[in-house]
Amino acid sequence: MLLTALPSELILQIFEQIPDAQTLQSLACTCSNFQQIAEVCLYSRFLFTRRESFKKLVDSLNKDSQRYNHVRDVELRYSTQAYDFLSTEPMDLCEFPNLRSFVSESPFCNAHSYVGRKDEGIWIADMKHYLHAFERASILTPGPEDGTLSKPLNNLKSLTLHWTGGLNARFWTTTPSCPIFLLPSLKKLEISCVKIKASENDQALQPFAYRTNLEELTFTESLVTTEALERILSLPKSLRSLTLHEVYRHRFNVGTGDYRHPLDNLDGMLRAISQQSDNLRVLNIFGPSVNDLQIAHLDLSTFACLTHLGLRNTYRYRLEQPPPSLTTLRIEDFAATAMTPSRLDSLLSEVNIVDCVANCANRQETLKLDLRLQDVAIVMLIGGHGPDASRPLRAFVDNFVQEIGKRVEMRRNRHLSSYGTISPDAPQTSISAPSPRRTSPLRLRLLTAKRIRYMPPYLHTEKRPKWVVRYDSGILAHPYYDETGDLIGSESSEDEEMNEIFMAH
């Protein structure tokens, strides 16, 4: 069958797989049959690091207004050294009726961006312009009464904002009534280095409860007060994924003023998150390492749909009541110094692994426990070099897995014995003894990554950790990359120290 005989929609899907703009340009110039389709693909995706390049795009779009309809994905990544300081007009996002995703990075995100005071006003104008566009598209602004026109940004599904407050203000501030939380069609929202606290204007949000279609919300290196979090999480109909990545790497005094970590008010944080307890599938809570505060008890027993839980170390809180459907538990920054027999009991109690494994075993499932090691250098301290380096780690792993199995069996036997005491007159339908276990109840993985000089949020061209699975139900002769990681722009973790630790015999 000739390519020209295929439906235009199918040809468009084929051309969208061509990443090379020069190839698409050649197709548009040499084949009249494919000129229009090639042009649609050429104008569908854009990534800019310079304002001058963006200005050229606008000039090209203005030559044919139909080209505005082709634009689907736009990334304005001005956090690089290539930023050119031009005081061009900000992009009017509302001119792109089919825009699906938008990424915006402030030129002040990184110290290596050569920007000065004269550029601060340009960036502030950009922010205000974007926020005005979001306000026009939000449910705060009524649509046309006659229904003849759709609201702008009606197709926007993904929004990523790595913003700053200005030249010397790494953090920017907003409130729950910010229009980015009120975009009706948005599915995925990620914002970083933001400080959010409640305001008097938030009372106007009550009529919009459970009105947005947001499914995935990520706060990276951010501070959100519990009151603000409660109001933000009241807006989505069905939030599936929530990541609270609190300030951890950036310098910011969070212990004073109105901004405090949500974990300092655990009851308030759980009350806010519980608004989505019937919907959440993925929950990540990455708090700072503070050891002198009172241990908080994390009760997630009412989160019936939660299957994936991520925690950053467990010094500040304990998973007292795990989610009943949990299948994956990931612990970030797991201290290698905890890999000793004396720390085994406390580790088991901190994240309540026995209950997590037992719940999975009763469902004939396996709990995947990922321990991401904190630092390669610390691992080297526990056993020295050469063959001796791996012995403490291997002993910990072996004891850990064996102890888990023993405790799960003990718990299971107690449950089975309790069923034996039930009266014979009791209805048989009310007796539901656990089924015999057919699979291993625990899949333990140890992951390592090289230390890199970048920190979240990872911006354009910045390398990010590449996590390597070193242990997966046994020391691996051939480690593999974690499939959940983003390998684009990442840095290799194939370092000699880790090879020596895990592969020594």
Account of the protein in words:
Residues 418-438 are annotated as: Disordered. It comes from Neoarthrinium moseri. This protein has helices at 8-15, 21-30, 35-42, 51-63, 117-137, 226-232, 266-273, 344-350, 353-362, 376-381, 387-420, 496-503; strands at 45-48, 73-77, 101-105, 158-162, 172-174, 188-192, 194-196, 216-224, 241-246, 282-286, 296-299, 308-312, 317-321, 328-334, 367-373, 442-448, 468-472, 475-481. With 505 residues, it is of the alpha/beta class. It has a 16-stranded mixed beta sheet that branches. The protein has a two-stranded parallel sheet with strand order 11-13. The longest helix is centred in the C-terminal third of the chain and has 34 residues, at 387-420. The model is unreliable at 383-389 and 426-438 (pLDDT under 50).
Summed up:
By secondary structure, the protein is of the alpha/beta class.
Counting DSSP E segments of at least 2 residues, the number of strands comes to 18
Helical coverage, percent range = 25-40%
Structural class, from secondary structure content?
Answer: alpha/beta
| Low confidence ranges | 383-389, 426-438
What is the residue-averaged pLDDT? Answer: 78
Largest sheet: 16 strands, mixed
Helix and strand string, N-terminal first?
HHHEHEEHEEEEEHEHEEEEEHHEHHEEEH
- Helix count equals 12
